[in-house]
Structures are given as C-alpha cells and as structure tokens.
Amino acid sequence: MSIASLFQALTTVLERTHINSESDQEMRKLNPFRNIPTIMTAEDIIEYAHSRSVKISMKSSLRLARVERTRIREITRLQEFTKSVKIKLKAVVDDFPTIDKLHPFYHELTEILVGIDKLKQSLGAVHNCIPPIDEITNKHLEALRLAQDHRQMKKTRRAAKGRISSILRATAKNVDFVIDAKRKMSNLPGIAPNSPTIVCAGFPNVGKSTLVRAVSSAEPEIAYYPFTTKSVIVGHLKIDEQNVQIVDTPGILDRPMSKRNEIERQAIAALKYLAHVIIFLIDPSEACGWTLGDQINLYNEVRRTFVMNPLFVAFNKIDITPANQLEAARKLMPDVYEIVATDGTGVEEMLRDAIEEVDLTSMEESVREFVSGLSRRESFTSDD
Ligand SMILES: Nc1nc2c(ncn2[C@@H]2O[C@H](COP(=O)(O)OP(=O)(O)OP(=O)(O)O)[C@@H](O)[C@H]2O)c(=O)[nH]1
Ligand SMILES: [Mg+2]
To answer: What distance in angstroms lies between residue 1's CA and the mean position of ligand 2's atoms?
Structure first.
C-alpha cells in the first residue's frame, strides 16, 4: 500500500474536525486572554484624553463675561481629560481576566510565561493611580472655581493635566507589563473544557507534532531537529462521532523539575491540567538524538507523576528502527503500541484505545465541579 493510500484510509475513520476560519475564531475565544480589548499605553492614554478634552466645544452664552466663559471651558476640559484617563486606566484592570478565576492550565501558564505576582502588582499599581488623579483634579477644579483671571485659569488646567500625565508616565512600565502579558497569553490556544483531551508528550524530536498534525486540525511545525515546538498546540478530531482534543507539547528532557525551562514547563502544565489520557512517544531508532534509556527514564517519571491519568506508550518511527534495536526495545518495554506517525501505521488503533480510556462521566462531573466552583468564588468576591 502506498503512503498516500494509507493516509487516505486513516483519515476516513478518524475525521479531522474541519476547522474553518469561523470555528477557528470560536476556538480561540476559549482562551480568556483573547477577549481583552486593545490596551492603550500610558502615552496613548495621555494623547487620547488630551484630544478628547480639546475637542469639547463650548457653546456658552455670549452674555457671559469672558472670564466666566473661560472658567466653564477650562473646568469642562479638565473634567473630560480626567474622565477619559480614568476610563482607559480602569479598562486596563477591569478587562483583564481575574487571575484567580482562570482555568488551572491558563493560571499555571500565566505563572510560567508572565509571573503572577508581578502581574498582580502591575494591575494593582495601575488601579492605584486613580485616587491621586481624582485628588489632583478636585484640587485644580476648586482653584478654577475661585480664579479671577482667565490666563490663570488656563495655567491651572494645564498644570492639572501635566500632573496627571506625570502619574501616568510613572506607571507606564506597569501598563507595558500588562500589555506584554496579554500578548504572550493570547498566543495560547483555546481549550474546550468539556472535550476529552489526549496530550502527546515525550523527548524532543520523537514525532509528537507529526502525529498531531496527521490526525487533527492542528498544523504544528515539523522539523528534523529538536525543540521545534515551543508552546502547547491544540488540534481537533472526531473519533467515532466523539469530538476530541489532541494536544501537541514541546519536548521534555529527563531532568529534575527545577532545571526545566519555561518551554518544558508548558508541556508539564498541559499534562497536569489538560490530559484525560497521555500518549507518550518513544523513538526506539534514537534518530531523535536521545538514547532509549533516557527516554524510558522520562517515561517512568511521567508515569510516577501522573498516576491518575491513563498512559499509553508508543514506539514511533518503527519504519527506520533497525530490527535488532526494535527487538531490544520490545524486551525493555513489552506491550507498547508501535506506530509510524509519518504514514499513519498503527495510529488509528492507538487513538481509539486511548479515547476509550476517558471516563466521560467523571469528566463531566469535574467540568460541573469546576463551573460551580467558579460561581462560588464569584459570590465570595462579588463585593470587590
Ligand atoms: N521515519 C520517520 N520519521 C518520523 C516519524 N515521525 C516523525 N518523524 C520525523 O522526525 C522528525 C521530528 O518530528 P517532529 O514531529 O517535529 O518531532 P517532535 O516530537 O514534535 O519534536 P519537538 O517539537 O522538537 O519536540 C521529523 O523530521 C519527522 O519527519 C516516523 O514515524 N518515521
Ligand atoms: Mg514538535
């Protein structure tokens, strides 16, 4: 059978969920950071508030004395400036997802990619700008009400805007941090909390992305060198009419958790918080660049760490594994799946078995628990 016809056979039974641009958008929206509207930098906020305040056209009666007309105009301009600044500053904080209510996967990824303490500090610092801005505004409005000279009024309004702008500039780095956090986090995939999820893991270069790409809607990059995949990627497929998510992860090395880098820790977070079933790929040909022994050590660690998850092991690349090497591998790890991710050999059977292991009832229960946990937390924090 040719590679093309084998592939054809595979894709007729396992249906890659057709992701058009609309459903792709829908999936992305499941990432809570995707829905944050554009956040303005401190300089943009100053410019925006300034342009709003100077646009205000005053139609005050000509019967009023010039000094009174100026007073009304300068008061209104300052009020408009402050209002615009506060709206944009509040948006930075209020439009950001509440960190403690995030799905544990996004929560952990926020810690890994951004740092939760630093993010909370930055959001807090932005929020704390509002009282001093109010104070400055009130003080200068009072001065405007008492002023007698129209030049003095303009000076007062400018002074207030200058001081408010200084507060904004002093917190610019905090706003930039929040903008950067949003950028990093919104690159993550959307996760459908109620679809059974298979997470593929293993050493770098063993063929995880090749497998995920072959069976699902995801299109991760594939390359002959290690560390190609640098973040978690989610694909969708249907197995016997059941919608399933399959997650491609960056390769992990056999080393202590404390030594693992940001990229490996994303893979661990996917195993910890997304996997209903784990497929652990091993490359017995060692073409990946690591020995079978190293790969088995990592497998043992994953098995010990994620005791609650059904764990499937597959030897991949059996098409290029010399017979004696494959025999030796079988002796070390009997009864594992044997696949060729590049042409689909053995893949369908493995995925069907994997999905059968998902306990759909308990999965539904845990989704329900998570959702009711959210509404409980909401009511605890409803007055904040
Ligand atoms: N011969 C053969 N090559 C394969 C097979 N599966 C994957 N490869 C090749 O192995 C190399 C690595 O494949 P990837 O899918 O990028 O591996 P990965 O595990 O995602 O790698 P990282 O993202 O770096 O962790 C590529 O050159 C693939 O074409 C297979 O079953 N047989
Ligand atoms: Mg990869």
So the answer is: 27
User: From the CA atom positions of the chain, what is the Rg in Å?
Assistant: 29
Q: Give, using CA atoms, the residue closest to atom 8 of ligand 1.
A: 207
Tell me the CA–centroid distance for residue 99 and ligand 2, in Å.
Answer: 29
Phi, psi of 201 (to 5 degrees): -140, 170
CA angle 246, 305, 372 (to 5 degrees): 65
Atom 27, ligand 1: which residue's CA is nearest?
Answer: 224
pLDDT digits (tens, 9 = 90+) for 276-308: 999 999 999 999 999 999 999 999 999 999 999
For residues 312 and 337, the answer to whether their CB atoms sit within 8 Å is yes
- What band does 18 get if pLDDT is binned at 50, 70 and 90? low
Protein residue with least CA distance to atom 14, ligand 1 = 207
Domains and CATH numbers, the chain: 3-30+190-373 (3.40.50.300), 36-186 (1.20.120.1190)
